[in-house]
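Handout, page 2. Input:
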Amino acid sequence: MTTPVALTIAGSDSSGGAGIQADLKTFAALGVYGASVITALTAQNTSGVTGIHLVPADFVTAQIDAVFSDLDVKAVKIGMVAQLAIVDAIVAGLTRWSPKHIVLDPVMVATSGDRLLATDAVEALRTKLLPRASLITPNLPEAAALLDEPVALSEVAIESQGKRLLALGCPAVLIKGGHGQGTESIDYLVSGNGIVALAAPRIPTKNTHGTGCSLSSAIAAGLAKGEDIETAVRKAKVWVSAAIAAADRLGIGHGNGPIHHFHGFY
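Output:
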């Protein structure tokens, strides 16, 4: 039996709760072998980001080629891309290697409010990277930013933005409702098959650092294991909801602590 392999292309989080570290923990927790391409180093903890050191685009290329030339990558998750040159390097690498599944989490701003994507890179993300993805996973502010529109406040507005994001060239969009209000957190999966609303109880905790990274990684893990997009999304949401529910057991840091990736183990 060959172990399914997933690759994360993202930034590093020195506190271990988000980014590359969250992605690798997610892959491991879900029985998938994780490889990584690091786009940026961040100096951050549960309270915020204090520094970003960008990886040169040619070295991002070198990492991509090293992984794909040796490992049988079944799915790719893309997180923080940081700058225009890195977007171009990733697009070129994906064109060269043509992975079957690509989950794009359009990370623009950290949970703490710190900006993680250069303004001139947003257009490249929208026009070059988004059309290559199998699924994109924006939260409500990110969906609005990709469309240059106000944040959607109603179900009708969210579904409308989802359809407009599809029109940009991606076959499926998961708009995450974690930034919304109410007793339930509802994510909307919009695709050519229609719209599926996925609800989970809104969990009262401040320890949600890395939630978005981990959800997109969990979806990529499911795709690497051969699941279809809707199945992978449904299973990933259940797993992330359990990781959030168990987050307070960890007690990490003084700010917004991480979710508990290994809640199924300890």
